[in-house]
């Protein structure tokens, strides 16, 4: 019997994770043997919908809406106990910068409340919690290649709140309160749907729009570097984070996930190989100094030796990233055996 | 007119800092010019005493006792506005490990409340706050030499709480809420008074007791390394942290203070040169595996290039550390022109 809570279940990654959990409804238990999912609770600020087909399946799926920093909402989602929490809920970077109090409350205080609730729910410290952090913890005067032991010096409130959450997870795990694990996520490409206000939105647009026969604008130079991961790899790595034996993490519960270091030029080259010159012709370069400055401040190269040693995986190539999008979001048949 | 608050004013460093502030009662203002101290508020859990002679001096000294995480106590200490806060108050390492909730409340929540109070008190963000952090933020699989860009992976709740406080100071400063500055302190040697329960207490005992004609036990091998600073240097560096122009910190408000990397053998050699064979004969080595393990886990070598560039200073030699103790705590005349 495995009880799972997903916060931020209505988000883009939350939905994909829920789908993956329902498609193969078991996770490793404390002894490493697979345990069937019995109870899946989906939590978000807006009520998540029960995924298609889930109502007839073997897993009890419950959907709940609320504010995690509200003790009543937190109590409801923890009711019945919990074995694994995927904590994806967050106020995004731009919003946390705009509203400092909101970011602190959701990104930090709610994480702390959730850790305390896990501790209360499983006084033996066995509740596993996967916390999603971000490359946004890094900033300032960075080395050319960010390593596992590079100090986070966040240049955004979002990055600060995530870095504080990492530290809480580290301490709750070290003390045996909660079996917490933090993964820092690369930039996720290719996102489905329309462009959003994130500075990184172009990295999905320049692939997604041409594949859909639409025009796209690239606001940064072709030599701009990014550190990316497909949604498919992110979901697989979240499940890996939840199922790794605790001892494997050693004295550090934070792991920078592996990704692909690519330039915009390399992304476009891969698009040409996958979809031809016509697709690439849809991309127009139009410099946006504001976006260029933000993107240039992000670290683009990482050495993620620890994650690799722990079995986390990156996409093999940017071609694979494009194919994952085509298969998962454009209705093409799944050809990739690693999915 | 300069209004200063010192939290933890009753502690060993707090008292020395207050003495130094009263001895030369001015600090640099926003434009770098010296501003006379007008108002000094001393805060601690137990009521601080007005320092000798202060009642007749030009500075109004007020003493207050309470719990900083209590809004009423915080309101009282901030009443009248503030220009500079030295935030030294903390639950020490062993206590924060023993009582997790107390450590979180005092070391983290009260720091957050204090930052919010500074922000409210000076909405232009001009209030300066010096936060004292610690080498305890470092731990886990450390490189041989800890650098300014080495990631903190704390192995104690105290270290986690201090690292979270650093992040808050970083964000409040970046956003222009509070002009915060964090200094990470080396191990402070030589402390006056009797030994305490800290694992590092021997580092003071093996100097202090022989100088006082008493026996001392050294629980670690002679080759054990430590990263130390005299109290005198700590106080000078706290004042340096408070008076540096904000722009000098660049995008990182946390500075690891410089110190001396010494072995126990080097400390004893300096004691022999200062106080002779008779003093050294008072030290007996008696292995304590528990203390040895804790001390061995501490980083002993640091490269503190940033602090040096910002004008922070280390003791020139361990002989200078011993002489500072003799002069400041044993009533010997001040001979050292750098004091």
TrEMBL record, chains A, B:
Gene3D superfamilies attached to this UniProt entry: NAD(P)-binding Rossmann-like Domain, UDP-galactose 4-epimerase, domain 1
Keywords assigned by UniProt, alphabetized: Carbohydrate metabolism, NADP
GO MF term set: oxidoreductase activity
Residue span, NAD-dependent epimerase/dehydratase domain: 4-214
Pfam families: Epimerase
Protein name in UniProt: Nucleoside-diphosphate-sugar epimerase
